[in-house]
Amino acid sequence: MNDDMIIVSREPIHPGEFLREEYMADLDLSVADLARRLGVTRQTVNDIVREKRGLSPDMCLRLGRLFGTTPQFWMNMQAKVDIWNSMALHADDIEAIEPMAVAL
Amino acid sequence: MNDDMIIVSREPIHPGEFLREEYMADLDLSVADLARRLGVTRQTVNDIVREKRGLSPDMCLRLGRLFGTTPQFWMNMQAKVDIWNSMALHADDIEAIEPMAVAL
DNA sequence: TCTTTTTGTAATGTGTAACGTTACATGATA
DNA sequence: TATCATGTAACGTTACACATTACAAAAAGA
User: Fold this and answer.
1) What total number of domains does chain B contain?
2) What is the CATH number of the domain that holds A63?
3) Does residue A88 belong to the interface with chain B, where contact is any CB pair within 8 Å?
4) Which of B3, B71, B72, B85 gives a 20 to 30 Å CA spacing to A3?
5) Using the 8-state DSSP alphabet, how is residue B11 labeled?
């Protein structure tokens, strides 16, 4: 049971939703406000918050810097939705792969 | 000190290097071999192993399936190099961001 | 040895996703 | 009312993962 042993059993929360509800709401930040502080366009923040866009590594760095978290925190959150979406899309191909008997 | 509290102090190892040295070497897998098992092209495996390409979520799922690890394991490894590269590229812009005094 | 296959890799085209720019309707403020 | 800020749609650019095609070198088989 390592750090990465997080079994995704339900749809993970989109970073945009988290950002919107946990940070912007609590800190009373508008889209324009946050964009300004992050040094990106309103469009960029808006798309993320509307869950139309994921978090790039760059954006994770910015959010980490602004809010005093690790970039990894945001990367992990994004990774979960990426894995979830990819699994929803290619589950069949993935499960067609024969697991190897491996003893490292 | 959470799971994501991994301070990146030195250049992280590329998943391709890890794959090459820890798995392919030990299990005596060729590029073509691995590609076949993963259900992707030789080109795809080759580019990853030559560190010319990163791991997509899809590829992380495949590797996890084949080797019996979590997809997250590979995602985390990739995330570290993504963050590292992005930081190397935009360090100035990131540090120009004024951290907020936040008490969640 | 000659032929056939397999292997690693370069080159090319495609699809997708993050991003900035521009534009605009709505709403706040002077 | 006139000005300015906000949220968001539309568009073009850029980057990247991927499959396809092509090919030289090595391996395997005749």
Assistant:
1) 1
2) 1.10.260.40
3) no
4) B85
5) P
Range of the domain at A79: 15-90
- Round to whole Å and give the CA distance between B24 and B63: 12
Judge whether A61 lies within some domain. yes
pLDDT in tens, A17-44: 999 999 999 999 999 999 999 999 999 9
Quote the strand ranges of chain A, DSSP E. Answer: none
pLDDT, average across residues A54-58 = 98
Interface of A with B in 48-87 (CB under 8 A): 56-58, 60-62, 65-68, 70-73, 75-76, 79-80, 82-83, 85-87
Partner-chain contact A83 B73, CB within 8 Å: no
**Hey, how many other C-beta atoms are within 10 angstroms of the C-beta on A102?**
12
**B21 inside domain:** yes
